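Notes on consecutive records. When two proteins share a document, each keeps its own sequence and its own token line. Never mix them. Below: protein one.
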Amino acid sequence: MKRFTTLRAATLRADVTASLVVFLVAVPLCVGVAVASGVPAELGLVTGVVGGLLTGLLPGSSLQVSGPAAGLTVLVFEAVKEYGIGALGALVLAAGVLQLAMGALKLGRWFRAISVAVVQGMLAGIGLVLIAGQLYALTDAKAPGTGLANIGSLPSLVVDTVGSATALSALGVGVGTIAVLVLWPRWRAAARLLPAPLAAVALATTTVWALDLPIARVQVSGLLDAIQPPGLADLGRLTEIGVLGTVVAFALIASAESLFSAAAVDRLHDGPKTDYDKELMAQGAGNAVCGVLGALPMTAVIVRSAANVQAGAQTKASRVLHGLWLLVFAAAFPTALGVVPVAALAGILVHAGWKLMPLRELRPLWREHRGEAVVLTVTALAIVTVNMFEGVLIGLLLAVAKTAWETSHVHLEVRTPERMEEPVLVRAVGNATFLRLPKILDQLDALPADRDVELDLSGLRHLDHACGAALSNWAEQHRRSRRAVELVS
């Protein structure tokens, strides 16, 4: 009994320590994601609180931590710009309900069937759009809007920044924040004491205060004032096609990011593995509550989850406690956010956007699986040039087309007897689909024109309707030229 009590005490100590580490990592990320999404900073903390206190309690994944994520920043910003902040709660609520339904229907495991190239392309596209937008926030400038517009206006941003002392000051703070994020983890003693994002924001805030720099700070409205539950008019907009498309995008992208994060976190520890359907329902419940509160959508976040595991978390208590610390911070120290420079948060998100792009994997992927590299690149570029939802759809369709092409290999084995009265023997092997039809017909048309043909289809694993009809038509035309054709199936 004494040994059991000691073990429980040790587990609790480990979970409390891990929860404090995750809390320190989560605070700047929650605030930064909210500001980049175009909503009050407090709403990022609200989502973090719900992710800890509610989603953290529910079954699914034991050590994965949920909250607002950089991966949804671009989509949320576009939704707020298009439909207004009042409609955000309705969108997130509907997305949560959709996730609950998908989990109840046992669809969680099917997200594992999504092409990794599409997911990596989605994250790369998000990273590019996120960086392009936050480069403006680095200089206290306002971004033009869409991904292409932000990228196209970068030369003007450079000119405006060079001619403004205030913009240069903000840029210095932002670049300094990025430098701390990159270099801080290499100072291992300091990194164990204080997470890099919090250290970067603390140093930037102290510098701005000490030098009294005239740059933008986070605007604080108060926790209760920031919470805006959706009204009946906002809920009524869920009948609009565009709004429904955004809901589906929220649900699918948040689910995919959460479940892929779960797979990554499972590889980091030896504890219980994720039940994907239950985790999908936990994410849905969290998003439904976030929607009711008018907060940001949540996903499982690999940065916080990895910090949780590496800090020695043993049970889900660590992620629940991190939500409690966020609630205490948001309720007791809301004005602390008002001294944080926006450029510092932009630096954190530029760094996060860079880490979303799989640059290290792209070169070996191109060498070994060139088709997958093309899918990744096209998905990323489609997200930048069109929008998130349509870009992912383009990537999925391209992945399906690539797979269909690769699996539709067919080979014709031709044997031509020396005796003219004997037919040419042709045996088809593989998968005969319409994608390979031109190749098949070209090979058949190249057979000797003065010989009979025996076409053996028994070696085909699959023969689709289009290909079967085309072969029948070819045989009929062959017979009309007074040559015998025998189809063997």
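Protein two starts on the next line and is unrelated to protein one.
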Amino acid sequence: MTYTEDAATAHAWAALGGRRQLVRRVSFEGAGAVLPSRLPVRELARATVAVASLAAAELLSLRNRAPVPAVRVDEAAVATAFVSERHLRVDGRAPASFAPLSGFWRAADGWVRTHANYPHHRARLLGSLGIADTGQDQILADTLSKELASRPALEIQETVYGADGLAVAVAPAPAGYAPADRPAPVASGPALIETRHGPQGNLRPLVPASVPARGVRVLDLTRVIAGPVATRTLALLGADVLRVDAPQLIEDADAHADTGMGKRSTLLDLADPGDRHTFEELLSQADVVVTGYRPGALDRHGLAPDALLSRHPGLIVAQLCAWGWSGSWAERRGFDSLVQAGAGIAAIEAGADGRPGVLPAQALDHGTGYLLAAAVLRALSDRHATGGGRHLRLSLAGTASWLLDIRPSSAPGGADLHDPGSWLTETASPYGLLRHALPPVHFEGSPSNWNRGPTRWGTDLPNWA
């Protein structure tokens, strides 16, 4: 069933500063009650994909001086893409999901959520709690369970964070889910999107093109899911996206296979003078810089937003973090699962036995990723008209706050009718044959798939295509 009215899409588009009348260009193809949840995940998912699609259509129309193409969002495609990491197969192999030491654990007075997927986070979790690392995770899980059960949840949280590990006390469900009742650390209700204008610069013109972001150069300093989903979307739309990682921060190969579509990947140590010079050369020719680190984490490398905008007028600087940009939690590390726990979402989704639950997808990650892509595309449209740069800030906590405020839609629901197989395809890659989700971003004339699969992480030359 096709419908056109969607309050969540209108809200997100307004937050992006888009022209109100353009929302009328968006229609939706329903697929039943996809992404079933107590919270309106379906509404969040389709809205974030819709505004990314509309922002792309708007930029294409400005470049070509043509009407804005119609946007059509298929909820089946959205539902499939929002769990793209679960659909990924590498030569038929299904990737592992969460590590044995990641998950919900009973504490002496409640529950905690840990995240130990990366080796350094795993080591810090164990070390902070005085647990010797035997290398046998199944045995360690039992030891960890007993240790956590003996301690209060907030004590665990602060002890682990004090060692730069990752653990969050599961917050209770917000009373009525109203912003005023929301528990810390999302008590202030971070803004969905923060936008600040930057100085004008001498820019390469965006000439007419068949895809919206053709010729746009994007430096991608993001990891895991949210940021890479955003830059994967920009690559789909024609941008030259170069992901830059520090050599010592090794990315999971399966995660990169899923989110590296259409992009290239290189390694640079910004503490090394030679690598730093190479990075500055790339930066001098970039249109967009996207970062996914904690507030202030890159400042020592001269990558604070004000410093970037001062050195490179007209640049678009887009930042993503976990817990928002102010308050006592702003500088803490975080992942989607941890923000769900800290925002009260895990408690809302709890089972009948009281065990905390999860959303049907890493919806904060994927949703924030599409919002971030939309914000960059809108900034490119505004820059095309004014020549001015932009500073954009989004957070997983801001998306969580919005999810708690979205009203369930009156659009057609019913049973989940979508067939994921219709929205999967296969692409060759250095990792093997990938079965992966097709992109959900769609407007009249949009690409149906990325023009190439991921390259192997860290193996590309540090230059623009």
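For the record: The mean pLDDT is 92.
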